[in-house]
Design brief:
alpha/beta, 2 domains, 6-stranded mixed sheet, 8 helices, about 35% helix, binds adenosine-5'-diphosphate, binds magnesium ion
Length: about 240
């Protein structure tokens, strides 16, 4: 479960082509990042996968079912996390599970604790920092029943220290929950550190420029960021992203 297949997806706004025949896949339990510059169409791609808008051309399959324009098939956390201000943190993280009728409060409490949010179960979103809200939004995704989780630049607003902690936390959670993750970022190091595979987009309009399979074994830790092999990968990808 959680296999995504994107076939020749195209989308224009007026006469501006944003996506042009974008094709890639995410396998069961795989962590795949979409890496591309700002404005290259990453969020647009996610809106299509989330069923918030429909493609002009192309198909989106989840576990063999066509999901073009279908909402709720995947768990989607938008670029700005959207906790409901009138619900407590516990009520917020249970939202997706509640809609599907598969609410498990004990799981939610355990994950809140693991995310370092213990004691904030009854707090409201405005009482939390940006990083804490982001973690709460993740927990909500992880507790939702969907087999594929899509995260749109979840760490781009965080400072470097918080970002590293959050990346490590996301990896540790993902390693024990093993869902498929499609992750959007414009940060090269982040993509290498987290992913099994990286899809590099070229912009205007977005096309798949190249795919990289990242061989580093798991579990990964922050020391990886300083290794020579890691820097080699970074160089190779920077080369791919720059215009020649
Ligand atoms: P990214 O997430 O990679 O930064 P986006 O997908 O948000 O990029 O945007 C890609 C391009 O599509 C931008 O030029 C943006 O202005 C345009 N765009 C996105 N959504 C709309 C929309 N609803 N109407 C018109 N243009 C849009
Ligand atoms: Mg975006």
């Amino acid at each position: 479960m959680g296999k995504l297949q994107i076939n020749k997806l195209s989308k224009s706004f007026g006469n501006k082509a944003v996506l042009d025949k974008v094709t890639f896949s995410v396998n069961e339990g795989e962590f795949v990042s979409i890496l591309g510059p700002s404005g290259s169409g990453k969020s647009t791609l996610f809106h299509l996968i989330g069923g918030i808008s429909v493609p002009d051309e192309g198909d989106i399959y989840l576990d063999g079912d066509l999901i073009n324009g279908k909402r709720g098939a995947i768990s989607y956390t938008p670029q700005a996390p959207s906790l409901l201000p009138w619900r407590t943190i516990l009520q917020n993280v249970l939202l997706g599970a509640e809609i599907s009728g598969k609410k498990n409060e004990q799981d939610a409490l355990d994950m809140i604790e693991r995310a370092g949010l213990g004691g904030y179960e009854k707090a409201y979103p405005h009482e939390l920092s940006g990083g804490m809200k982001q973690r709460a939004a993740f927990i909500r995704s992880l507790l939702s029943p969907q087999s594929l989780i899509c995260l749109d630049e979840p760490f781009s607003a965080l400072d470097e220290f918080t970002r590293l902690d959050m990346q490590k936390w996301l990896l540790s959670i993902w390693e024990s929950y093993k869902r498929s993750i499609l992750f959007v970022t414009h940060n090269i190091e982040e993509a290498i550190y987290l992913s099994d595979r990286i899809i590099v987009l070229a912009a205007n309009p977005a096309t798949v420029k190249r795919e990289f399979t990242i061989p580093f074994e798991r579990p990964r830790d922050k020391n990886l960021l300083l290794k020579q092999d890691f820097l080699q990968w970074k160089k190779a990808i920077i080369k791919e992203l720059s215009w020649e």
